[in-house]
Design goal:
Layout (H helix, E strand, L loop, with lengths): L1 E7 L3 E8 L4 E8 L5 H13 L8 E5 L24 H9 L3 E5 H12 L8 E6 L3 E7 L2 E3 L25 H4 L1 H11 L9 H9 L3 H25 L3 E5 L6 H16 L9 E4 L6 H14 L7
Parallel strand pairs: 1-4, 4-5, 6-9, 9-10
Antiparallel strand pairs: 1-2, 2-3, 6-7, 7-8
């Protein structure tokens, strides 16, 4: 039996067929080419049409805050046009197979708890670094969604508590901010350097790139410290495409160590780990969520 897994983000829709052993095949990416909810559903439907008749359902991981039981989107995250819509109803109506939906950071945590870097943990936090910063919390081996499905909402964290108009974490620790910071430092226009090109510069020892990455990791390390004082997690798992960069994980661990070393009291430090499934964690977690019984039946079934 196969399912179609999709990972909806600000830059596009990743997709793959997934089997009962969680093996992925037929993977692809549909870059963002839509600017309305209706055109987004058409794009998702176009992906499904390639596999129609061969999949038992669609497992969706998406940016934004949502109710996974009903499919209601409280916000669309980077895809603001999805705010207030119901993605389960809309995708089911278009594709007419069982559909499940879950927040992308929650999916990353589910994948890592199932067969990744969190299999040995009871309490953990997952941070997915992408266009924004996704967060998810596991307490006593269970995903914690909170009272309003907003637990782990890292992007909106205020980073300067004394500032009434404080910037949010996503303005400091989205991948786009990292590359834009480097571009501004060396006098290039925003968007002139993408993630792979930036890390090529880091590996070459470019001083401005290293300084930009250090600043990025310092703010994220301080955020990990703050989260730890509240949740006392065993592990903080780092996901998103950037997690596949060992130099980033190493520098983040160093920054986190410095943040804990400056504490005025002993705060138990979590282990900072890269997600085992890297950029596939959201796809695999979406399937894990779907197979746990969250796949809603199609209309007319």
């Amino acid at each position: 039996m196969n399912w179609l897994a999709m990972d909806v983000g600000g830059s596009g829709v990743k997709y793959a067929l997934a089997d009962e052993a969680y093996r992925l095949s037929e993977a692809g990416v549909l870059p963002t080419s839509y600017d309305t909810h209706a055109s987004f559903i058409d794009a998702v439907g176009g992906i499904y049409d390639r596999f129609a008749g061969t999949v038992a359902g669609i497992a969706v991981s998406t940016c934004g805050e949502l109710d996974p039981d009903t499919g209601h989107m409280f916000s669309g995250g980077s895809l603001r046009f999805n705010s207030g819509t119901n993605l389960i109803d809309a995708i089911t109506a278009r594709c007419r197979v069982p559909v499940s939906i879950e927040n992308d950071a929650n999916c990353a945590l589910l994948a890592e708890a199932h067969s990744g870097c969190l299999t040995d943990c009871r309490n953990a936090v997952a941070l997915t670094i992408g266009t924004a910063v996704g967060g998810a919390v596991m307490i006593n081996r269970a995903l914690y969604r909170g009272s309003h499905f907003h637990a782990g909402n890292a992007s909106f964290t205020k980073v300067a508590l004394a500032d009434g108009d404080s910037p949010q974490l996503d303005s400091l620790n989205g991948v786009g901010t990292l590359t834009a910071r480097y571009a501004a430092t060396v006098g290039l226009p925003a968007g002139a350097v993408d993630g792979p090109a930036f890390f090529d510069l880091v590996h070459q020892g470019d001083p401005a790139a290293l300084e930009s990455l250090d600043s990025f990791c310092t703010s994220l390390g301080n955020y990990i410290f703050n989260v730890q004082t509240v949740l006392d997690a065993e592990v903080v798992a780092i996901g998103g495409g950037i997690s596949a960069q060992p130099v980033f994980i190493d520098m983040l661990r160093q920054s986190t160590d410095r943040s804990f070393a400056r504490a005025t009291a002993r705060i138990p430090k979590p282990d900072v780990r890269a997600c085992h499934h890297f950029n596939n964690a959201n796809l695999l977690g979406a399937l894990r969520h779907h197979r746990a019984g969250r796949g809603h039946q199609p209309y007319g079934s």
